[in-house]
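Ticket #4471: structure output looks truncated?

Reporter: J.K.
Steps to reproduce: submitted the chain below (297 residues) through the standard prediction queue, then opened the result file.
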Amino acid sequence: MTSRSARSVSSTKVSVMHRPLPEKANHAGNLHGGNLMRYLDEVGSLVAIRYARGRIVTASVNGISFLGPVLPNEIVHFHGAVNAVWKSSMEVGIRTESENPYTGALRHVGSCYLTFVSLDEHGAPRLLPPLVPENKEDERRMADAARRSAFSRLDRRSKGSSLPSEGLAFESMPGKFAVCKLPSDAPFPDFSFLPQSSCFGLFRVLSYFSCVLAEEFLAVFQKNNPTLEVCAGFVCFTVAGMPTLSDTPFLAGVAMLLTSAQISAYSVFLQGNCCLLLKAEDLEQAVDVLKNAGYAF
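Returned output as attached by the reporter:
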């Protein structure tokens, strides 16, 4: 059985140096692009195997950029790392640099993003340990990976390919909801008269206090809190199959899909439950967009 113990980003990084032989050159005498792609897949596989500690396969190349040639006699540096991990798949990013062995000068010559899937001994997808970001840069890379994954899913869907759901599905909550805000200096509201499922997402920041409230209790809540600001008319979905906070970068991909369709949304993450709030008038269009990207409802 695969361990689900979380792993930090720093533990996933791998650097490899390579000096291509002359027979790997193209007609111009530089490293052939096809050979560079082979090296990228090999380095990416090394990173993925080291993270999964098991069998992996290359699922897709989400993007590859050649920014400059690798000149004769230069040393190639491949810096690979796991950018994001979903259920049984991961994205590995590789930065390629070329070094002049006589001066030590480095040039950024390429970037690549590959998706790998972890398999068990029977060839079935195998759960991977969650990836834990350590700083803002790690969080940015995870969000970028989620965005690339979402658009890749949408592109494959448009071409008629079947898409794995990765165990994530949207489940609707009954009724409508409102996003409520109070000034930061307001007293903490009394929620004792409310059913447990009617209010969630309680936050206090420097400038305001906010919560999400079922609309059927809004009138009473406003009466007790006259300075309340309300934005009503939301429907709410929980995201099934998201057991850990490390899975939340998938929301970046969802946000990009909805933004591209000019649909606004709120998201709240609370103790293993992710909630997505959409305006009721946008619901039908939002569901179509997300279904076309391969998400289940």
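Triage note (M.O.): checked the attachment and the full token line is present. The two ends are 29 Å apart (CA to CA).
Status: closed, working as intended.
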